[in-house]
Design brief:
globular; 312 residues; 2 domains; alpha/beta; Histone, subunit A; 14 helices; six-stranded parallel sheet
């Protein structure tokens, strides 16, 4: 039987060196990088999302970056739909896909598939939001509890976006969100998935993340935010909810001193890294490497892991 082509997944928390390792593996193994990151899909938001520099993208092709404008909504389902033809093309060209994964939900959507949930109904969502604004606290949670007790137990009473989505699904399909999730998942086919995880020492990672904020600011992050504000990108656009961009906008609008802004960004980034570590530790069949992806020793171990078995 002909072996399946491989799909290499490099996963780990922000700042762990996924991009550097992805580039190194691509060069060594004849691959191309497929980015799996919910922030890097947005055009114009580059420095704070740690996009690979344009020159490096030219040296090693990168896919699934800059797919959406700042005012668009981009979901995990849309990521999967964009990724599948890219992976098919790489397979046809006998190129090894190196997936650099920072967003666990996007990775899960690609590898495990998503439930066949209905499209968003902006009209319905607006009605639900308006109704909630006129009712007592906890109204949406009580509504959901009557329709889908299982989802109500999982979703916090204050998590309005998730409550609205769960109610929306019930109203549009006549099924609970739990039922929707149990039906219709389609796993990725046609690849042997190999997962490599980067797990640097926690204290060293946090120190690196704190330092990286200063590096990004020296690299023009604040000017990038100014440009996006000048373009008229509204404060409620998705990218302005990203770590760093929300704080820097608040600073530019006079709401935060720069020192406080930097401190808040650093703290939020460390918390995000911790959440990523928790998420990725639940991934199955990951070969964990105890260091950063830009460390030559870690890269060598990753290459050894991916070395094809010798013929008997």
């Amino acid at each position: 039987m002909t072996p399946l082509p491989r799909l290499v997944v490099v996963l780990g928390p922000t700042g762990s060196g996924k991009s550097a390792l992805g580039i190194r593996l691509s060069r060594a193994l004849g691959g191309e990088v497929v980015v799996c990151d919910s922030t890097q899909v947005y055009r114009g938001f580059d420095i704070g999302t740690a996009k690979v520099l344009a020159a490096e993208q030219q040296a090693v092709p990168h896919h699934l970056i800059d797919l959406a404008d700042a005012t668009e909504i981009f979901t995990a389902g849309e990521y999967r739909r964009a990724a599948l033809p890219v992976l098919s093309d790489l397979r046809d060209r006998a190129k090894l896909p190196i997936l650099t994964a920072g967003t666990g939900l996007y990775l899960r959507a690609l590898l495990e598939g998503l439930a066949d949930a209905p499209e968003r109904s902006e009209q319905l969502r607006e009605r639900l939001a308006q109704r909630a604004a006129t009712k007592s606290p906890g109204y949406l949670h009580r509504v959901l509890a009557r329709m889908d007790q299982g989802s109500a137990q999982r979703i916090a009473p204050a998590d309005t976006p998730k409550l609205i989505r769960a109610i929306e699904v019930c109203l549009l399909t006549g099924k609970t969100l739990t039922q929707i999730h149990e039906d219709g998942r389609h796993k990725l086919q046609g690849f042997e998935v190999v997962k490599i995880g980067l797990s640097p020492d926690r204290a060293t990672l946090y120190a690196h993340l704190d330092s990286r904020v200063h590096t990004m600011l020296k690299g023009g992050w604040l000017d990038e935010v100014r440009r996006q504000i000048a373009k008229g990108i509204p404060v409620d656009a998705k990218p302005f909810q990203f770590i760093g961009y929300s704080q820097l906008r608040a600073h530019l609008e006079g709401q935060l001193a720069l020192d406080d802004t930097i401190s808040e960004i650093q703290q939020a980034t460390r918390r995000y890294a911790k959440r990523q570590i928790t998420w990725f530790r639940r991934e199955k069949e990951v070969q964990w490497l105890p260091g950063f992806g830009d460390d030559p020793k870690i890269a060598a171990r990753a290459l050894q892991t991916l070395k094809p078995p010798s013929n008997p």
